[in-house]
Amino acid sequence: GEDVEQSLFLSVREGDSSVINCTYTDSSSTYLYWYKQEPGAGLQLLTYIFSNMDMKQDQRLTVLLNKKDKHLSLRIADTQTGDSAIYFCAELPYGQNFVFGPGTRLSVLP
Amino acid sequence: DAMVIQNPRYQVTQFGKPVTLSCSQTLNHNVMYWYQQKSSQAPKLLFHYYDKDFNNEADTPDNFQSRRPNTSFCFLDIRSPGLGDAAMYLCATSRGGQGVSQPQHFGDGTRLSIL
Questions:
Q1: Is residue A24 exposed (0-12), middle (13-18) or buried (19+ Cβ within 10 Å)?
Q2: Each residue's pLDDT tens digit, A59-91
Q3: Of A39, A43, A28, whose CA–CA distance to A89 is shortest?
Q4: Mutating which of A26, A38, A43 best tests the B interface, going by the most B Cβ atoms within 10 A?
Q5: Contact A44/B106, CB-based, under 8 Å?
């Protein structure tokens, strides 16, 4: 079945770049998504990328997609303490519902 | 701003006492979802409505039911909550349906505690 994998933890220093990685399995997914969840809150849509693109940039966020390897990454430039959260990668296989990864907990150290 | 609103943010109920969680949306999306999220885990889809059509996930316990009286509102009913039902419950909406790759928009969730 479909499976989305992410590393569970990442720590970076304030001001450094963060790179959160994700692998997915279903090549029929048209879009791939990144969501951010702060403590006690719902999921906030951060960005998404169409499967025929290999890169999308949105201010401090850069999404890279390697469709051949089914690998997705989210880079956050100049990481701030407010970026501390759990980041979920998600795919939407054709004809099915969202499949979320387990989430990567990003800790930003001063 | 158009949004997804969940009430209450925190709900405490007694073991076995029925509880209802509510979700409303101003996005005019035709699909509404209910997820259960336990600590440090990904959200788990319980069911969703595509317009008025109800779609239950195969492993959703019978204890969980839902109602959607109109486009804007959706309710999650837990008939006899057990201790294992303590979790964050997330409502989400999207435009379209299965096979349409529209992002889901989430509310802030209701954290349910069982005494």
A1: buried
A2: 999 999 998 899 999 999 999 999 999 999 998
A3: A43
A4: A43
A5: yes
Is residue A74 a contact partner of residue A87, using CB atoms and an 8 Å limit? Answer: yes
- Express each pLDDT in B67-98 by its tens digit: 999 999 999 999 999 999 999 999 999 987 55
**Site from B49, B56, B101 to mutate, A interface, most A CB atoms within 10 angstroms:** B101
Closest Cα to residue A59, out of A73, A44, A75? Answer: A75
For residues B93 and B29, the answer to whether their CB atoms sit within 8 Å is yes
Contact present, B32 and B92 (Cβ < 8 Å) = yes
The set of residues, in sequence order, having a beta carbon less than 8 Å from that of A91 and lying 6+ positions away, is A2, A4, A24, A25, A26, A29, A32, A33, A98, A99
Does a cis peptide bond (omega within 30 degrees of 0) precede residue B8? Answer: yes
